[in-house]
């Protein structure tokens, strides 16, 4: 993939993910604000309704009290005044309509001390009741046969007595409101009543949340309030209570919810949680996609390096074989049996070298597909180490180095495959030889730790950085050395080592420092 295209894709995907996260956060905040606004409207309506119910209850108490006094008086003194009369005659039907509306005044002789007058003065005002009396009558005009006699025959008569309309009601309520103002607030409403009404109204609207309330008079607290109510910076809902005839009031009913934010967030928790889960899934998918893109890019680079290395590794043997074949075909050389045998030996060695590299690739492929048949027997790991050292000892000596063995483990029998375990040790030793710029200096140690044997292969070569150390057992991975092929190989040896050790229920790891050599540890369970 083109590097610029890769960077562009990463930027676009990052912007898209950031946009999605921003939209989700904005939606959650908007939902909370909408819920808060809806909650505020509901609470305001609850407060108005509670205040109205308290006012109606107080007025009903007054009315019931007044009615009980009226019943104890007996027959009141009645006086009629303001009698209105209406007469209409229908010429077609010879009917006359009489309609009268009179107002009756009933005096109960109840003094105004009923209103709990607290000024101590004497008041002679009495309570009176006004009632309307409405009468409707229809008469039929009739004349005698002689034309001289005349009479009115009643056809219909209806009489209705009832209270006066809104004017009387308004006047009565105004008197009551003015009288009620003289009473202390704690005598007009109790904590129990407010708690009951508030709880009922909140329950009717499915609001299950703790609350605190209080009644304030012109900004000052009264005795009517909950124990934990505080006039603080917490959001408060307010409604007037005990309004007068002009709609004004000196009292306010206040309501607060200490855990309102939690309640509002809990109300959208379901959708918010789903939103967060889907956003998290998108983030994981995005991270995975970026990781896969980077991984594929790395694999592409590693495979390119592998192909270059394999080409370089095959190029020299092929060239050597070609030169040897051409030399053998030379008539002068073909007669020299010694030269022919030397050239044939060169061809055989180079052929083995290419065959070994192909076998390495095929062996890793079979391991990945679990097609490699690994049978395990009881073997002595010390014998395998000695055999592996013998494979590379001549190469090390040829470069002026050494391989020293320190096989100090008291027990060394393990369940392993002889051939594959030998290849494992050889690969690690060969790796130590390859990455020793000067004469290879290698020490091999064995020791028993608990029920495991540990093989430690230590060299004094070039060493590895921490970044390389993390990837040294990955397939095809080789430390970049530019275009210089001073280290032969194709990045499969240590990958093969790890797969074989894992198959033996063992563990392989390395410690290294750049310029100070490396140490490889192979840990296997003892029998």
From TrEMBL:
Molecular-function annotations in GO: kinase activity
Keywords, alphabetical: Kinase, Membrane, Phosphoprotein, Transferase, Transmembrane, Transmembrane helix
Name of this protein: histidine kinase
Enzyme Commission code: 2.7.13.3
PANTHER family: HISTIDINE KINASE, TWO-COMPONENT HISTIDINE KINASE
Repeat listed as a keyword: no
Catalyzed reaction equations: ATP + protein L-histidine = ADP + protein N-phospho-L-histidine
Domain Histidine kinase, first and last residues per copy: 309-527
Record flagged with keyword Kinase: yes
InterPro entries: BphY/WalK/GraS-like, HATPase_C_sf, HATPase_dom, His_kinase_dom, HisK_dim/P_dom, HisK_dim/P_sf, Sig_transdc_His_kin-like_C
Enzyme class: transferase
Regions crossing the membrane: 6-28, 263-286
């Amino acid at each position: 993939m083109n590097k610029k295209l890769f960077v562009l894709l990463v930027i676009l995907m990052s912007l898209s993910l950031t946009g999605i996260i921003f939209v989700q956060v904005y939606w959650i905040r908007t939902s909370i604000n909408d819920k808060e606004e809806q909650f505020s409207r509901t609470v305001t309506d609850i407060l108005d309704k509670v205040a109205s119910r308290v006012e109606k209850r107080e007025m009903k108490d007054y009315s019931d009290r007044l009615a009980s006094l009226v019943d104890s008086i007996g027959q009141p003194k009645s006086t009629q005044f303001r009698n209105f009369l209406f007469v209409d005659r229908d010429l077609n039907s010879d009917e006359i309509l009489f309609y009268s509306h009179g107002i009756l005044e009933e005096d109960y002789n109840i003094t105004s001390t009923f209103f709990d007058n607290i000024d101590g003065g004497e008041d002679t005002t009495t309570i009176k009741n006004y009632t309307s009396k409405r009468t409707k009558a229809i008469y039929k005009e009739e004349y005698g046969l002689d034309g001289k006699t005349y009479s009115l025959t009643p056809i219909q008569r209806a009489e209705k007595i009832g209270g006066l309309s809104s004017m009387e009601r308004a006047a009565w309520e105004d008197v009551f409101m003015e009288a009620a103002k003289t009473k202390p607030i704690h005598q007009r409403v109790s904590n129990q009543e407010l708690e009951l009404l508030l709880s009922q109204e909140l329950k009717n609207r499915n609001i299950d949340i703790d609350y605190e309330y209080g009644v304030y008079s012109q900004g000052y607290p009264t005795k009517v309030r909950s124990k934990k109510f505080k006039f603080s910076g917490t959001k408060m809902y307010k409604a007037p209570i005990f309004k007068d005839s002009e709609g004004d009031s000196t009292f306010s009913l206040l309501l607060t919810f200490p855990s309102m934010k939690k309640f509002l967030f809990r109300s959208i928790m379901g959708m918010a949680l789903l939103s967060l889960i889907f956003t998290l899934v998108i983030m994981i998918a995005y991270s995975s996609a970026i990781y896969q893109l980077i991984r594929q890019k790395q694999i592409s680079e590693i495979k390119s390096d592998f192909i270059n290395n394999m080409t370089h590794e095959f190029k020299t043997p092929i060239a050597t074989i070609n030169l040897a074949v051409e030399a053998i075909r030379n008539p002068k050389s073909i007669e020299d049996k010694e030269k022919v045998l030397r050239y044939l030996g060169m061809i055989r060695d180079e052929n083995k070298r290419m065959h070994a590299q192909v076998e390495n690739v095929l062996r890793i492929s079979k391991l990945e597909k679990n097609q490699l048949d690994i049978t395990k027997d009881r073997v002595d790991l010390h014998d395998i180490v000695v055999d592996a050292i013998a494979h590379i000892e001549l190469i090390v000596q040829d470069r002026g180095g050494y391989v020293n063995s320190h096989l100090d483990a008291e027990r060394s029998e393990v369940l392993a495959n002889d051939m594959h375990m030998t290849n494992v040790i050889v690969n690690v030793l060969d790796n130590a030889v390859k990455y020793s710029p000067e004469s290879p200096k290698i020490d091999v140690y064995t020791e028993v730790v608990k029920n495991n044997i540990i093989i430690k292969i230590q060299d004094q070569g070039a060493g590895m950085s921490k970044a390389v150390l993390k990837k040294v057992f990955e397939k095809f991975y080789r430390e970049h050395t530019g275009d210089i092929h001073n280290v032969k190989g194709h990045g499969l040896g240590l990958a093969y080592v790890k797969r074989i050790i894992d198959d033996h229920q063992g563990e392989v790891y390395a410690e290294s420092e750049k310029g100070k050599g490396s140490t490889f540890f192979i840990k296997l369970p003892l029998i």
